[in-house]
């Protein structure tokens, strides 16, 4: 605990609010909420913690706090702050875990569609469905039962759906809004459990048709009844009512938390959502944050009812979501919550070994690497490499690893501008300078470690730029390779020495991954540039083949070799006019 933190801890109020933990670069790494700020924030800096929480606390150099007037305000503020700052240690539910829904659009002539996007429009949404097949099967059934609009754009004449009795043909007929409203109400009732009454009506119509000797019509009704049974009654009934509800359960073990959400629709358990993440505050508080993100960031449709396990603040959830929230004490609802929590415990145990292994390979490897080099744990590592062919088309590249994993959005490619073609040292000097001048200018996070794919000479060049020119203090290491071009040694220090690392250690494997990744990235960039330049020189001067068409050919075929081997028709398919394609073909023939 530094003096600044110690002083701020003494000023914390006995009030609810949010706190923002910062690292040494001022980056917000964790956001939390508390009913009593003084107690909660102090707890991070007192007592013992598991290794995961110690890692978080070890990075904290400062904190801020914001007082709120209530617990619900603190929760809402926390959700907004997490969304704003995307702190590395917070739960960040991704919106890729989306499920299909059925939607009745709010257009003048409504239609039924399958969608994974929940928008704040006037459409009616139903779901989620366990998979796309279930959603499309249900839509197909409704397509046959109700004559709503089926086409995306109204044609100028009636289509087959009209002749099948499955569309009212708004393209040629004036349809009253009352008709649509009645149909939408019927579909809504059907999807909310009313399909049994529809099935009963169809059964009566089938019997009447058979009695009137209208056997074709009776067969149509029989098929519709069979479809309803096949699509809507596949699963065993879980509840006696048809209320749509989400059931939350959770389990905690070894500083990790698993939350399971059961989706109960029309009385049936249709799907579950599983999330596993590290735990840094009380489970009950973490659950509130999770639920807020679950219906906010990921956009899950709110059901009629939410069931929660004991210990969760029911009133806060109800205020936050404006939905019926219950903590059941007995009966089937209580059993569902227990079942959800039991499944969470099973999932946590099953995946815990995998999580531990991943931790060892990533953050654990960073910790081991820092210990071996006698530096702070390098959680943010940036690595550089150069590439050229005999001094032609020289390029450089940088890859970024955060917490032992590739951070591809921060990867960078460089075409050297000032360095001579064969000057590897000059290229490294230029690229290091360009990278960290920009980092300083744009106030980007500085790395904890810079790795140069090279030996002492390359390291010294990087050191001169980082320390002598820019006045920064960042550890710089080098990676030397053996005769087989494999990672062999880690170089570090002043004077430079070999850092002893076992080849079977996770830290060594991490360095191998970093070196392989930066090499792959720079070689790929070099090949792209070489092919682009080769294409330019090969096709220069050909009538009808300018820069855009050269790039178009390379993008389509992927290499000069494949362009040379292409037929006239293939060149034409790639976007060249037929005459230009013939010219290119003849050119390559003459070249042979």
TrEMBL record:
Subcellular location: Cytoplasm
InterPro entries linked: GIY-YIG_endonuc, GIY-YIG_endonuc_sf, GIY-YIG_UvrC_Cho, RuvA_2-like, UVR_dom, UVR_dom_sf, UvrABC_protein_C, UvrC
Alphabetized SUPFAM superfamilies for the sequence: C-terminal UvrC-binding domain of UvrB, GIY-YIG endonuclease, RuvA domain 2-like
Entry keyword set: Coiled coil, Cytoplasm, DNA damage, DNA excision, DNA repair, Excision nuclease, SOS response
Taxonomy, superkingdom: Bacteria
GIY-YIG domain mapped to chain residues: 14-91
Residues annotated as domain UVR: 196-231
Matching CDD domains: GIY-YIG_UvrC_Cho
Coiled-coil ranges (or none): 199-238
Gene3D superfamilies assigned to the protein according to its UniProt record, in alphabetical order: 5' to 3' exonuclease, C-terminal subdomain (1.10.150.20), GIY-YIG endonuclease (3.40.1440.10), UVR domain (4.10.860.10), UvrC, RNAse H endonuclease domain (3.30.420.340)
Domain UvrC family homology region profile: 247-466
PROSITE patterns: GIY_YIG, UVR, UVRC
Function: The UvrABC repair system catalyzes the recognition and processing of DNA lesions. UvrC both incises the 5' and 3' sides of the lesion. The N-terminal half is responsible for the 3' incision and the C-terminal half is responsible for the 5' incision.
Oligomer and partners: Interacts with UvrB in an incision complex.
Similarity-based family: Belongs to the UvrC family.
The name this protein goes by in its record: UvrABC system protein C
Source species of the chain: Sporosarcina koreensis
């Amino acid at each position: 605990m530094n003096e600044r933190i110690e002083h701020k801890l003494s000023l914390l109020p006995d009030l609810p609010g949010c706190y923002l933990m910062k690292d040494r670069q001022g980056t917000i790494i964790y956001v939390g909420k508390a009913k009593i700020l003084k107690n909660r924030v102090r707890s991070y800096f007192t007592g013992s913690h598991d290794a995961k929480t110690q890692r978080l606390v070890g990075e904290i150099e400062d904190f801020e706090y914001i007082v709120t007037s209530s617990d619900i305000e603190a929760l809402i503020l926390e959700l907004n702050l997490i969304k704003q700052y995307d702190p590395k240690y917070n739960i960040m539910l991704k919106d890729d875990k989306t499920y299909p829904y059925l939607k009745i659009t709010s257009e003048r002539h409504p239609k039924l569609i399958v969608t994974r996007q929940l928008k704040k429009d006037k459409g009616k949404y139903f779901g989620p469905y366990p998979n796309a097949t279930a959603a499309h099967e249900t839509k197909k059934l409704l397509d046959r039962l109700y004559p709503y609009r089926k086409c995306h754009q109204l044609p100028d004449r009636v289509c087959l759906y009209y002749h099948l009795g499955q569309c009212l043909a708004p393209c040629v007929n004036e349809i009253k809004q009352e008709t649509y409203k009645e149909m939408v109400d019927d579909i809504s009732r059907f999807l909310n459990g009313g399909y049994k009454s529809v099935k009963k009506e169809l059964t009566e119509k089938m019997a009447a048709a058979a009695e009137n000797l209208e056997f074709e019509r009776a067969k149509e009704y029989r098929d519709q009844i069979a479809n309803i049974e096949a699509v809507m009654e596949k699963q065993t009934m879980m509840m006696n009512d048809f209320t749509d509800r989400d059931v939350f359960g959770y389990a905690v073990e070894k500083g990790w938390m698993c939350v399971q959400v059961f989706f109960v629709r029309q009385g049936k358990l249709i799907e579950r959502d599983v999330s596993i993440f590290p735990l840094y505050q009380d489970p009950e508080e973490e659950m509130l944050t999770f639920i807020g993100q679950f219906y906010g960031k990921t956009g899950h449709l709110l059901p009629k009812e939410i069931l929660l396990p004991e210990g969760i603040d029911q009133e806060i959830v109800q205020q936050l979501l404006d939905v019926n929230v219950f903590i059941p004490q007995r009966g089937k609802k209580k059993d569902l919550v227990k079942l959800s929590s039991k499944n969470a415990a099973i999932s946590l145990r099953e995946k815990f070994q995998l999580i531990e292994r991943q931790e060892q390979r990533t953050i654990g490897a960073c910790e081991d690497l820092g210990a071996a080099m006698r530096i702070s744990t390098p959680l943010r590592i940036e690595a550089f490499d150069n590439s050229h062919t005999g001094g032609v088309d020289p390029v450089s590249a940088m890859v970024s690893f955060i917490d032992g994993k590739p951070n591809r959005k921060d990867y960078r490619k460089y075409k050297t501008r000032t360095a001579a073609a064969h000057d590897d040292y000059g290229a490294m000097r230029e690229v290091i300078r360009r990278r960290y001048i920009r980092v300083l200018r744009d106030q980007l996070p500085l790395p904890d470690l810079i790795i140069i794919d090279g030996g002492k000479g390359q390291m010294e060049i990087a050191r001169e730029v980082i320390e002598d020119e820019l006045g920064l203090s960042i550890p710089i290491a080098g990676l030397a390779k053996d005769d087989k071009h494999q990672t062999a040694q880690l170089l570090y220090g002043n004077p430079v020495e070999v850092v002893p690392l076992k080849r079977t250690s996770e830290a060594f494997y991490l360095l191998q991954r970093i070196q392989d990744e930066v090499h792959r990235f720079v070689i790929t960039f070099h090949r792209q540039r070489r092919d682009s330049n080769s294409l330019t020189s090969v096709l220069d001067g050909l009538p009808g083949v300018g820069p855009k068409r050269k790039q178009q050919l390379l993008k389509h075929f992927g290499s000069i070799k494949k362009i040379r081997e292409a037929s006239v028709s293939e060149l034409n398919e790639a976007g060249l006019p037929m005459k230009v394609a013939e010219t290119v073909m003849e050119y390559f023939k003459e070249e042979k």
